[in-house]
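Hi Prof. W.,

I finally got the Multidrug ABC transporter ATP-binding protein prediction working! I wasn't sure whether to trim anything, so I left the full sequence exactly as given:
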Amino acid sequence: MLKLFHNFKKSDAMLVAIAVLFIVGQVWLDLRLPDYMADITSLLTTGTDNMKDVWIAGGKMLLCAFGSMAGSVVVAICASRISSNFGANLRERLYLRVQSFSMEEINRFSTSSLITRSTNDITQIQLVIVMGLQVIVKAPITAVWAIAKIFDKGLEWTVATFITVLLLLVGVFIVLKLARPKFKMMQKLTDNINRVTRENLSGLSVVRAYNAEAYQEAKFEEANDELTSTALFTSRVMASMMPYIGLLLNGLSIAIYAIGAALIHNVAFNADMSNMMEVLTERGELFANMVIFMNYAMQVVMSFMMLVVIFILMPRASVAAERINEVLNTRPTITDGDKEDGIAGHEGEIEFRDVSFRYPDAASNMLEHISFTAKKGQTVAIIGSTGCGKSTVVNLIPRFYDATEGEVLVDGRNVREFTQNALHNRIGYVSQKAFLFKGTIASNIAFGDNGKGPVSEDQIQNAIEISSSAHFVGKKENGIESEVVQGGNNYSGGQKQRLSIARAVARNAEILIFDDSFSALDYKTDRAVRHMLQERCADATKIIVAQRIGTIRNADKILVMEDGQIVGQGTHQELMQNCEVYQQIALSQLTEEELA
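And this is what came out:
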């Protein structure tokens, strides 16, 4: 957990110093109270007639109490500020780290776990900082200072206090030993309930269509019950500390009074009756010492009790810190190269040289010995059965993953040599699942930084025309400023695909990648979009992954894939003559007359 405190800023360190200063002042004021109480006790036991001294001592006690309260308010304000700043800084670091992750790291942690680590886990640490700054610093200072003050007041009382503290620490150790494994489990169960909830909300329409509400409810209840039972166990274990601490405090009070009574009795029993005034004075001093010791002993035990509160919070925060450090210490497998420019004469060119690829932890390669070249302005299509590796091929171009063997070249240069910004600025990418961000149509089309300055309204309108989106965008009351809700759920699948295509086109990129991006379009719109792409984006190299023969039959080159390998390569006519796999796909979709 200490590693995380490297995230403190200088301004936060200043606030910590101010807080510590006020804590020391607060402790000093708290420990002055018993001294004034002792003065009052001594004045009363000696039978003083000067009540003015009693009132003065009482007034000083009130000033100390108010001063301590003011100090605690300042410390609380500083702690809250430090905690908020620390949480914000940590969330930013986590977000930036996750942004640098490849799909391999994202899949390793899972989305639900990363969300929990960025929210719940950081909250646990913030809670410890708020409480800890007020307790972890204050309690040891109070305990040491108070022990120093009472050490010479009476050996018997000191031994009783140390025994109480020892029993308290033993109880804390046992509780933490039982609770820590459960706290680690709780954070994982929080991940799980987050996953189940997100899954249910994302697939709500499917759940309702299949009357699966009861099934989903049972799944949620199972996850919820598991989390609840674990939380109850830790709460019960921690709750057992309170009566135990109460027992120790009451036991210490009884012990101090019993020891004090015995000492006072011994003074009276062994006293010389001829010197009664000295006896009374000694008994008064003993009584005053007992009152002082009681107050200081309570301060010592209360200090350790405050530490117990932190010990209760610490295990879960410690587990949360480990989970956060796990993300922060993960080094992305995709690292930047140092090249910004490609090789002259190879602009817009894509080449795969004997590329093989295996997903992390997979038993075998997904791709085997893939080789092809796409020249500038060409349209290269990839077709094949589901799961044959089509999307995996195009995901290697923008480096969502790195090839296991072989080379992927863009503009004549290995993609590993480019900085990621430079590589992505060359590419307009449309994913298999069309995704829109909350905002407007314009903000979605002009999304991101293409390295060429902001996308103008004319570019947005041009992209809308190319993607055949003008018809439905024109019907919107606010046009390109129409609202898009999270995930684009206020648009149909075909509309989302067309806006995603518009987003890629608006980048004016030299390479356009369409990963099965025409599947939700009707044949007429599909043909219109491809025609506009060919006409308006003639200089761009286009890589199209598709299932429909109609979408790819006019491509300059078609790659036919099966079981992670290219089994055919050529134009539509060439493949119809020499590639059996392509013939089977074509005849399963179109008649021989249509193909002819």
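DSSP finds 22 helices and twelve strands in the chain. Does that look reasonable to you?

Thanks,
D.
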